[in-house]
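Example A, followed by Example B.
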Amino acid sequence: MWGLVMGTYLGGSAPAMAKQVCDGFALLSSTVVKRLDIGQMQQLEFELEKRLRETRGETVDLGDQESLQRRNRRISRIESALRVLRHGMQQRRMGRL
């Protein structure tokens, strides 16, 4: 049965995929989310939330604009990925994905 095959994470595992998304090497799109089952989506959501907490917890010198911009871009990438992932999870639960 072709429809029952689970997808795999980019990078091999949820932590590796979360790191790639946070660093900007991979983008989380609806196509990527479609390949994952709900358990994998939940694990990826956990890893992305963990990365978001870590990033927000970093102290950055307010005088260092470059570091501040890098941190804010990273937070923006993570939040965007979480938004796409949560939408995919909602669609999967409703049977539309």
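Example B, a separate protein, is given below in the same form.
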Amino acid sequence: MNKTPDFERLMRIDLPEPEVSDESPPLRLVQWSTEHFADRKMVLTTAFGMEGCALIDMYARFTSSLTVSYIDTGFFFPETIRLIDRIIGKYPHLVVVQ
């Protein structure tokens, strides 16, 4: 008897045919992911670079249940700390955790 390990079973997700492609604009991909995974907890990890901030902004448009996670290495510049505070202020519906 060959059992599928739990992690493999959990990773199998039955999704409908994709409504997006590799040519879809990023905002559409974000929208699609929030629609298709609305029943799951979504976590975005970031180091608050340009790309991470852009993703936070895009996801904030489509969901209020996103958790933004980061690791404080103790080496953030003061500007990065201020940026984190600005993001928390601009997107109060998102949860930002260390």
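On Example B: The CA atoms of residues 18 and 87 lie 31 Å apart.
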